[in-house]
Amino acid sequence: MKLSFHGADRAVTGSCHSVECLNRRILIDCGLFQGSRDLVEENIAAFGFDPATIDYVLLTHAHLDHCGRIPLLVKRGFRGELITTAASRELARLVLVDAAHLQEEDAQRRARQGRRQGKEEAPSPLYNVVDALDCFDRIWKDS
Questions:
Q1: How far apart, in whole angstroms, are the C-alpha atoms of residue 104 and residue 118?
Q2: CB within 10 Å: which end of the chain, N or C, has fewer?
Q3: What is the average pLDDT score of the chain?
């Protein structure tokens, strides 16, 4: 068995832990780093593993620091199965759609600020509402 930590190892946010056992890779949570603007870069950064190599994501609960990067995981190639309770699935859907909406608004605000400063490149949200909803159609299963 091999354990690796990709979040919440030096802080209390961004929970993301990998377990490899019997030729299976299980990710326990895939959370958003929260707390300051400096963490935007950490959320955008590579996961530290190839999302396509993950077989399962086990979501412990629907707090954003535990589920907030799941749509990004899917965008970057995860095609396995996400396992959680029905209640956590419902709550996570609401949390992720709300988070996506806020990210879209933040990207629009930063784009307006950038245009005023003469910058041509518009920032993108980590994921958008369509991405958040798409991950439900692709990977979410009730346990």
A1: 21
A2: N
A3: 89
